[in-house]
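Structure in, sequence out. Go:
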């Protein structure tokens, strides 16, 4: 439905991280003078450490420390030379040990991120295709970006959706040599596993399929000799060695206790090719002697009987934690046998509240936050390691249960709300029992109890004076909104066979004294997910929609309507309960979206840094950039001469050169009552623009809408015709007049004459002329074409929307597509 531009995406991530940083959750510093693994000191407070990824605790093993120190003494702090020329003396031993550990040829890399960058571009050839699991690690996503300039097809499937994967394989196998699927073995946030059995069935079924795993979180704590989750799964499926079309990246850091990563190749030929040339593998500095020495010491432990005892000790603690959690009423995502646990919080505000309380209770855990997880899937991620003893684990589970109860009350959430935000998860029996108990009792709310929300389905149920005083502006004044409601609420079938209908919902929130606190309206309609995406994306999607009309579309509950632009709400910012009013609205919107099978909620047309922004983000809304809004302010402009005099010298020249010479060949005809045949001509011209201008990619409006314009006194048609006898219709603008605003809502153009007669520019000029004649204070020139409108004196405003989606999948698919 919307795009997140790259710089805007970084701003969005920064916004969320900044909020967490301000709350003392992210970008912290450990203050310990020495570390044991069991505790960590933050802001002067010693906390139980449940955030490590060193699950076996080998980073504190004295043997690894001693060998690292000895490595520095013998060989220095680094060996500053590329491995392409020569490796330092310890490398050969490490490679031999790792080859024995994995029973496959290996390539050692500086870290997993550089490893993926070094390996993936060499693996995937120009005639291949790539499929990503939606939640595969960021480092894999990043490496795959290097394939796109080569024209390699990159697709994405929903997380762990084997059926979607097979459908894509079927689509791609006829046009590509190899099909690569990238996934994690153990996923770093939720701790869930790739569906290995299903993937291996597909591997057997489709000879073109190749599997590539990031298994850094499956390393050491599981598998024979700690070789990890992928090799363990292969063994369980009856494979004595890594299958020929399966490969994975493991780690020498995290649980392994040292530094670096290792790529495990299924055969010697591939190993030779990748080691010979692979970007960072060729040109990056090699691992320092201390890291290699520590890795050798760890490999010796892995290849000994000791590793089994370490694994069993950790697995016993994982089992204890799982058993304790099952007895709580906590929403545990994917309760399984991995060291990673995730407590669902839902909205960011609940996660913030819960993690603050855990810190106060003496526990260091991690916050699962956007973009690592979908914004409405915020949660508490904690890990179990050998450093944690049983008493620590029991204390943690008790603290989690207490913090959760406190957090959902303070953030006005509930178990039911969280369960609805985390769809398709199997909750533990204790949670379900408490969930059922909650649903039978009256739900407690932390919101101001004096607030009353009223919801109406028609503008006719709203007081006209109140509406026009607080919201009604331009196209959506009371009369205009009545017209919009009548026209857009009617069902109609478009050319593709999709049935369109807009439902309107009006929300009015008052306090006990009936003082208006919040007034707004929303429309529920089907929108294209690429509505604001780059044109190249929309062109590709439109080809797909010829076969599948609803491809990449969503039912969106959007503030205002797609037909209007502007401030679609009134909020009494001086009211003490205004924030509670917004939260009350959002809860009702969630219920409405679920009832109507919507997928997204969109708050539209906000300026940057407005007063409600922080609250919106806490409630799980992502800030996204919209096309710039263009308005002509006419308060001090009462004639076309005054307008012209206010233009800059450069813009006056633009008018004289690019518009004025064409005026003599054309004339403006203003009509309020057009014939049926003329409206049909209008509609043909509108369709020209609708099909051509996909910068804002919308479904076309039905012809009936233009007939309805013909029946409303506030609508008029500005026709641009040639001055000859034929009086050929070159373009038309559909304009609405309200008390203070002139709104050119839609436009139609005969593109055969646009260049020769400057049709679009002439129409812009006549819109301004007519707006001045109407004696309005503002002309709402709408979105897009800001460059042309600015040259005629329009003010340009950056506008933003706030999107709350059930899942990030479609947004990430758009991001993936628009970077191709």
């Amino acid at each position: 439905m919307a795009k997140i531009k790259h710089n805007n995406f970084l701003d969005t991530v920064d916004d969320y991280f900044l909020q967490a940083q301000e709350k003392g959750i992210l970008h912290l510093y450990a203050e310990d003078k020495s570390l044991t693994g069991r505790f960590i000191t933050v802001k002067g407070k010693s906390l139980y450490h449940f955030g490590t990824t060193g699950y076996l605790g080998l980073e504190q093993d004295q043997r690894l420390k001693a060998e690292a120190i000895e490595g520095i003494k013998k060989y220095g702090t680094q060996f500053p030379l590329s491995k392409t020329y020569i490796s330092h003396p310890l490398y050969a031993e490490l490679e031999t040990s790792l080859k024995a550990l994995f029973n496959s040829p290996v390539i050692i890399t500086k870290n997993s991120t550089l490893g993926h960058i070094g390996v993936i571009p060499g693996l995937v050839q120009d005639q291949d295709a790539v499929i990503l699991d939606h939640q595969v690690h960021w480092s894999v996503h990043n490496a795959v970006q290097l394939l796109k300039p080569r024209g390699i097809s990159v697709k994405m499937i929903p997380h762990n959706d084997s059926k979607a994967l097979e459908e894509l394989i079927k689509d791609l196998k006829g046009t590509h040599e190899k099909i690569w699927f990238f996934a994690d073995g153990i996923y770093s946030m939720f701790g869930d596993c790739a569906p290995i059995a299903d993937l291996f069935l597909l591997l057997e079924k489709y000879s073109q399929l190749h599997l590539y795993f990031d298994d850094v979180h499956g390393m050491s704590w599981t598998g024979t000799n700690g070789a990890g989750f992928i090799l363990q799964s292969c063994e369980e499926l009856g494979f004595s060695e890594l299958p020929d079309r399966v490969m994975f990246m493991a780690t020498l850091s995290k649980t392994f206790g040292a530094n670096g990563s290792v790529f495990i190749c299924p055969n010697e030929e591939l190993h030779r090719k990748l080691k010979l040339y692979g970007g960072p593998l060729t040109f990056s500095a090699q691992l320092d002697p201390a890291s290699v020495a520590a890795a050798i010491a760890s490999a010796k432990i892995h290849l000994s009987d000791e590793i089994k005892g370490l694994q069993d000790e950790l697995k016993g603690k994982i089992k204890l934690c799982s058993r304790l959690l099952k007895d709580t009423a906590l929403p545990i995502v994917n309760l399984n046998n991995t060291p990673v646990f995730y407590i669902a919080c839902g909205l960011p505000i609940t996660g913030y509240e819960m993690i603050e309380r855990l810190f106060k209770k003496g526990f260091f855990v991690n916050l699962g936050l956007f973009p690592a997880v979908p914004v409405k899937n915020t949660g508490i991620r904690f890990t179990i390691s050998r450093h944690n003893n049983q008493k620590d684990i029991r204390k943690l589970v008790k603290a989690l249960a207490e913090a959760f109860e406190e957090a959902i009350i303070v953030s006005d959430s509930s178990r039911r709300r969280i369960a609805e935000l985390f769809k398709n998860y199997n909750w533990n029996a204790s949670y379900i029992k408490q969930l059922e108990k909650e649903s039978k009792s009256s739900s407690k709310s932390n919101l101001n109890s004096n607030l009353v929300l009223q919801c109406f389905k028609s503008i006719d149920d709203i007081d006209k004076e109140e509406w026009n005083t607080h919201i009604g502006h331009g196209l959506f004044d009371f009369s205009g909104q009545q017209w919009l409601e009548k026209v857009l609420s009617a069902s109609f079938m478009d050319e593709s066979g999709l049935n369109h209908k807009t439902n309107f919902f009006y929300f009015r929130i008052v306090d006990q004294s009936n003082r208006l606190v919040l007034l707004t309206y929303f429309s529920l309609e089907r929108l294209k997910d690429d509505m604001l995406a780059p044109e190249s994306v929309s062109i590709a999607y439109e080809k797909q929609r010829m076969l599948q009309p609803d491809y990449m579309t969503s039912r969106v509950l959007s503030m205002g309507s797609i037909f209007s632009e502007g401030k679609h709400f009134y909020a009494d910012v001086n009211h003490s309960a205004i924030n509670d009013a917004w939260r009350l609205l959002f809860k009702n919107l969630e219920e409405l979206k679920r009832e109507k099978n919507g997928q997204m909620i969109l708050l539209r047309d906000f300026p940057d840094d407005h007063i409600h922004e922080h609250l919106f983000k806490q409630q799980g809304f992502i800030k996204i950039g919209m096309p710039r809004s263009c308005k002509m302010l006419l308060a001090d402009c009462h004639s076309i001469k005054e307008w012209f005099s206010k233009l800059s010298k450069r813009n006056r020249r633009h008018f004289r050169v690019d518009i004025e010479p064409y005026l003599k060949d054309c004339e403006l005809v203003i009509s309020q009552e057009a014939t049926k045949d003329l409206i049909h001509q209008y509609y043909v011209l509108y369709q020209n623009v609708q099909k051509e201008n996909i910068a804002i990619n919308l479904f076309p409006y039905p012809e009936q809408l233009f007939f309805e314009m013909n029946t409303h006194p506030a609508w008029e048609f500005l026709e641009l015709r040639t001055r000859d006898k034929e009086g050929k219709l070159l373009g038309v603008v559909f304009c609405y007049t309200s008390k203070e605003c002139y709104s050119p809502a839609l436009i139609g153009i005969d593109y055969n004459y646009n260049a020769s007669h400057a049709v679009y520019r002439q129409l812009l000029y006549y819109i301004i002329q007519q707006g001045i004649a109407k004696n309005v204070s503002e002309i709402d020139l709408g979105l897009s074409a800001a460059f042309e409108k600015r040259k005629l004196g329009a003010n340009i405003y950056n506008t933003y929307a706030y999107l709350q989606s059930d899942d990030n999948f479609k947004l990430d698919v758009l991001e993936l597509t628009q970077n191709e």
